[in-house]
Amino acid sequence: MDGGWQVMKYTHVKTLIRKELTLEWRQKYAIGGVVLYLVSMVFVAYLSFEGIIPLQTWNALFWLIMLFAAMNTILKAFVQEHGDRYLYYYSLLNPTDFIVAKTIYNALLMLLMGGLGLVIFIAFMGNPIQSMGLFVVNILLGMTGLASVLTLISAIASGAKNNFTLMAVLGFPLVLPLLLMLIRVSSAAMGGSAFVPLAADILIIAMIILIANLLSFLLFPYIWRL
Protein backbone atom coordinates (compact mmCIF):
# COMPACT_ATOMS: atom_id res chain seq x y z
CA MET A 1 0.00 0.00 0.00
CA ASP A 2 1.17 3.51 -0.65
CA GLY A 3 1.59 4.70 2.95
CA GLY A 4 -0.72 7.28 4.48
CA TRP A 5 -1.32 9.39 1.42
CA GLN A 6 -4.36 7.44 0.33
CA VAL A 7 -7.78 8.98 0.79
CA MET A 8 -9.25 8.27 4.19
CA LYS A 9 -12.29 5.97 4.04
CA TYR A 10 -15.11 6.81 6.43
CA THR A 11 -16.32 3.21 6.57
CA HIS A 12 -12.88 1.99 7.67
CA VAL A 13 -12.70 4.63 10.39
CA LYS A 14 -16.20 3.78 11.60
CA THR A 15 -15.39 0.06 11.70
CA LEU A 16 -12.18 0.64 13.64
CA ILE A 17 -13.96 2.82 16.20
CA ARG A 18 -16.63 0.13 16.61
CA LYS A 19 -13.86 -2.43 17.13
CA GLU A 20 -12.28 -0.28 19.84
CA LEU A 21 -15.65 0.13 21.59
CA THR A 22 -16.26 -3.62 21.46
CA LEU A 23 -12.86 -4.40 22.95
CA GLU A 24 -13.32 -1.78 25.66
CA TRP A 25 -16.72 -3.20 26.52
CA ARG A 26 -15.27 -6.69 26.85
CA GLN A 27 -12.45 -5.38 29.04
CA LYS A 28 -14.54 -3.35 31.46
CA TYR A 29 -11.81 -3.55 34.06
CA ALA A 30 -9.77 -0.99 32.10
CA ILE A 31 -12.45 1.70 32.35
CA GLY A 32 -13.30 0.57 35.86
CA GLY A 33 -9.68 1.03 36.86
CA VAL A 34 -9.62 4.60 35.58
CA VAL A 35 -12.91 5.41 37.35
CA LEU A 36 -11.53 3.92 40.56
CA TYR A 37 -8.39 6.02 40.10
CA LEU A 38 -10.46 9.21 39.71
CA VAL A 39 -12.61 8.51 42.76
CA SER A 40 -9.70 7.47 44.97
CA MET A 41 -7.49 10.43 44.01
CA VAL A 42 -10.27 12.97 44.56
CA PHE A 43 -11.22 11.33 47.85
CA VAL A 44 -7.60 11.40 49.06
CA ALA A 45 -7.40 15.10 48.12
CA TYR A 46 -10.67 15.72 49.97
CA LEU A 47 -9.31 14.07 53.12
CA SER A 48 -5.97 15.87 52.82
CA PHE A 49 -7.57 19.32 52.61
CA GLU A 50 -10.42 18.40 54.98
CA GLY A 51 -12.93 19.59 52.41
CA ILE A 52 -11.52 23.14 52.37
CA ILE A 53 -9.42 23.73 49.28
CA PRO A 54 -8.24 27.03 47.70
CA LEU A 55 -9.52 27.80 44.22
CA GLN A 56 -6.15 27.59 42.50
CA THR A 57 -5.37 24.29 44.22
CA TRP A 58 -8.78 22.91 43.17
CA ASN A 59 -8.02 23.91 39.60
CA ALA A 60 -4.48 22.52 39.51
CA LEU A 61 -5.50 19.24 41.15
CA PHE A 62 -8.35 18.77 38.70
CA TRP A 63 -6.11 19.04 35.64
CA LEU A 64 -3.27 17.00 37.11
CA ILE A 65 -5.65 14.16 37.95
CA MET A 66 -7.18 14.42 34.47
CA LEU A 67 -3.70 14.32 32.92
CA PHE A 68 -2.68 11.13 34.71
CA ALA A 69 -6.06 9.53 33.98
CA ALA A 70 -5.51 10.38 30.29
CA MET A 71 -2.00 8.93 30.34
CA ASN A 72 -3.18 5.71 31.97
CA THR A 73 -5.98 5.40 29.43
CA ILE A 74 -4.38 6.49 26.16
CA LEU A 75 -0.71 5.54 26.34
CA LYS A 76 -1.75 1.89 26.18
CA ALA A 77 -3.62 2.53 22.92
CA PHE A 78 -0.88 1.01 20.76
CA VAL A 79 0.60 -1.37 23.33
CA GLN A 80 -2.14 -3.94 22.73
CA GLU A 81 -1.55 -3.85 18.95
CA HIS A 82 1.03 -6.61 18.50
CA GLY A 83 2.98 -7.26 15.32
CA ASP A 84 0.63 -9.85 13.80
CA ARG A 85 -2.35 -7.56 14.22
CA TYR A 86 -0.45 -4.69 12.60
CA LEU A 87 0.31 -6.95 9.64
CA TYR A 88 -3.41 -7.72 9.32
CA TYR A 89 -4.29 -4.01 9.46
CA TYR A 90 -1.60 -3.25 6.90
CA SER A 91 -3.22 -5.62 4.41
CA LEU A 92 -6.63 -3.96 4.74
CA LEU A 93 -6.18 -0.30 5.66
CA ASN A 94 -4.09 2.76 5.05
CA PRO A 95 -2.45 4.48 8.03
CA THR A 96 -4.70 7.53 7.83
CA ASP A 97 -7.77 5.43 8.61
CA PHE A 98 -6.01 3.83 11.55
CA ILE A 99 -4.65 6.95 13.26
CA VAL A 100 -7.86 8.96 12.71
CA ALA A 101 -9.93 6.16 14.26
CA LYS A 102 -7.56 5.89 17.23
CA THR A 103 -7.61 9.65 17.80
CA ILE A 104 -11.41 9.92 17.57
CA TYR A 105 -11.94 6.97 19.89
CA ASN A 106 -9.44 8.31 22.45
CA ALA A 107 -11.05 11.76 22.28
CA LEU A 108 -14.52 10.27 22.94
CA LEU A 109 -13.13 8.25 25.83
CA MET A 110 -11.43 11.28 27.34
CA LEU A 111 -14.55 13.44 26.99
CA LEU A 112 -16.38 10.81 29.03
CA MET A 113 -13.59 10.82 31.61
CA GLY A 114 -13.57 14.62 31.73
CA GLY A 115 -17.29 14.82 32.41
CA LEU A 116 -17.08 12.09 35.03
CA GLY A 117 -14.07 13.73 36.66
CA LEU A 118 -15.88 17.07 36.91
CA VAL A 119 -18.91 15.41 38.54
CA ILE A 120 -16.70 13.57 41.05
CA PHE A 121 -14.72 16.72 41.84
CA ILE A 122 -17.86 18.78 42.46
CA ALA A 123 -19.37 15.98 44.57
CA PHE A 124 -16.36 15.85 46.90
CA MET A 125 -14.85 19.34 46.67
CA GLY A 126 -17.86 21.56 46.04
CA ASN A 127 -18.47 23.76 43.02
CA PRO A 128 -16.35 26.94 43.01
CA ILE A 129 -16.88 27.51 39.25
CA GLN A 130 -18.65 30.78 38.47
CA SER A 131 -18.59 30.50 34.69
CA MET A 132 -19.62 26.88 34.11
CA GLY A 133 -20.12 27.32 30.37
CA LEU A 134 -16.52 28.46 29.87
CA PHE A 135 -15.24 25.70 32.14
CA VAL A 136 -17.14 23.02 30.20
CA VAL A 137 -15.84 24.36 26.87
CA ASN A 138 -12.33 24.24 28.32
CA ILE A 139 -12.87 20.62 29.38
CA LEU A 140 -14.08 19.72 25.89
CA LEU A 141 -11.01 21.30 24.32
CA GLY A 142 -8.69 19.97 27.02
CA MET A 143 -9.81 16.36 26.82
CA THR A 144 -9.67 16.46 23.01
CA GLY A 145 -6.22 18.03 23.17
CA LEU A 146 -4.87 15.47 25.64
CA ALA A 147 -6.27 12.69 23.48
CA SER A 148 -4.63 14.12 20.34
CA VAL A 149 -1.22 14.73 21.91
CA LEU A 150 -1.06 11.45 23.84
CA THR A 151 -2.25 9.43 20.85
CA LEU A 152 0.62 10.93 18.85
CA ILE A 153 3.10 10.07 21.62
CA SER A 154 1.76 6.53 21.93
CA ALA A 155 2.01 6.06 18.15
CA ILE A 156 5.64 7.24 18.09
CA ALA A 157 6.53 5.04 21.05
CA SER A 158 4.93 2.05 19.31
CA GLY A 159 7.44 2.51 16.49
CA ALA A 160 10.18 2.27 19.12
CA LYS A 161 8.77 -1.04 20.41
CA ASN A 162 6.59 0.67 23.03
CA ASN A 163 9.50 2.37 24.76
CA PHE A 164 7.90 3.88 27.87
CA THR A 165 10.96 6.05 28.53
CA LEU A 166 10.44 7.62 25.12
CA MET A 167 6.78 8.25 26.02
CA ALA A 168 7.85 10.15 29.13
CA VAL A 169 10.53 12.16 27.32
CA LEU A 170 8.20 13.16 24.48
CA GLY A 171 5.17 13.65 26.68
CA PHE A 172 6.50 16.36 28.97
CA PRO A 173 7.36 19.07 26.38
CA LEU A 174 4.25 18.32 24.31
CA VAL A 175 1.71 18.15 27.12
CA LEU A 176 3.07 20.93 29.35
CA PRO A 177 2.10 23.92 27.12
CA LEU A 178 -1.40 22.50 26.66
CA LEU A 179 -1.79 21.84 30.38
CA LEU A 180 -0.66 25.34 31.34
CA MET A 181 -3.16 26.93 28.93
CA LEU A 182 -5.98 24.73 30.22
CA ILE A 183 -5.21 25.66 33.82
CA ARG A 184 -5.14 29.34 32.87
CA VAL A 185 -8.51 29.27 31.12
CA SER A 186 -10.22 27.21 33.82
CA SER A 187 -8.80 29.52 36.49
CA ALA A 188 -10.44 32.45 34.71
CA ALA A 189 -13.69 30.46 34.48
CA MET A 190 -13.62 29.89 38.22
CA GLY A 191 -13.30 33.65 38.64
CA GLY A 192 -16.37 34.27 36.48
CA SER A 193 -14.60 35.48 33.33
CA ALA A 194 -16.48 35.73 30.03
CA PHE A 195 -15.46 34.06 26.74
CA VAL A 196 -14.24 37.17 24.92
CA PRO A 197 -11.22 38.05 27.13
CA LEU A 198 -9.98 34.47 26.78
CA ALA A 199 -10.51 34.12 23.04
CA ALA A 200 -6.76 34.20 22.35
CA ASP A 201 -6.04 31.50 24.94
CA ILE A 202 -8.81 29.28 23.59
CA LEU A 203 -7.46 29.80 20.08
CA ILE A 204 -3.99 28.69 21.23
CA ILE A 205 -5.46 25.51 22.71
CA ALA A 206 -7.30 24.84 19.44
CA MET A 207 -4.06 25.39 17.49
CA ILE A 208 -2.20 22.91 19.71
CA ILE A 209 -4.91 20.34 18.99
CA LEU A 210 -4.69 21.06 15.26
CA ILE A 211 -0.89 20.78 15.23
CA ALA A 212 -0.97 17.48 17.16
CA ASN A 213 -3.47 16.01 14.70
CA LEU A 214 -1.50 17.23 11.69
CA LEU A 215 1.68 15.71 13.10
CA SER A 216 -0.14 12.42 13.64
CA PHE A 217 -1.38 12.50 10.06
CA LEU A 218 2.08 13.27 8.68
CA LEU A 219 4.24 11.06 10.89
CA PHE A 220 2.14 7.95 11.37
CA PRO A 221 2.58 6.67 7.77
CA TYR A 222 6.33 6.40 8.45
CA ILE A 223 5.76 4.76 11.84
CA TRP A 224 3.31 2.39 10.14
CA ARG A 225 6.11 0.97 7.98
CA LEU A 226 8.46 0.22 10.88
Keywords:
globular; 0% strand; 226 residues; mainly alpha
**Low-confidence stretches at least 5 residues in length (pLDDT < 50)?**
1-7
What is the total number of structural domains? 1
Oligomeric state of the chains present here: single chain
Give the topology string: H per helix, E per strand: HHHHHHHH
Radius of gyration: 18 Å
Number of strands: 0
Average pLDDT works out at 81
**Main sheet, how many strands, which sense, barrel?**
none
Query: Percent of residues in helical segments?
Result: over 70%
Structural class: mainly alpha
**So what's the overall shape?**
globular
Counted by DSSP, the helix tally is 8
Q: What percent of residues are in strands?
A: under 5%
N→C terminal distance: 14 Å
How would you describe this protein?
The chain is mostly helical. The protein has one domain (10-224). The chain is built from eight helices and no strands. Helix 2 packs antiparallel against helix 3 and helix 5 (95-125) crosses helix 8. It starts with 9 loop residues before the first helix and ends with a helix.
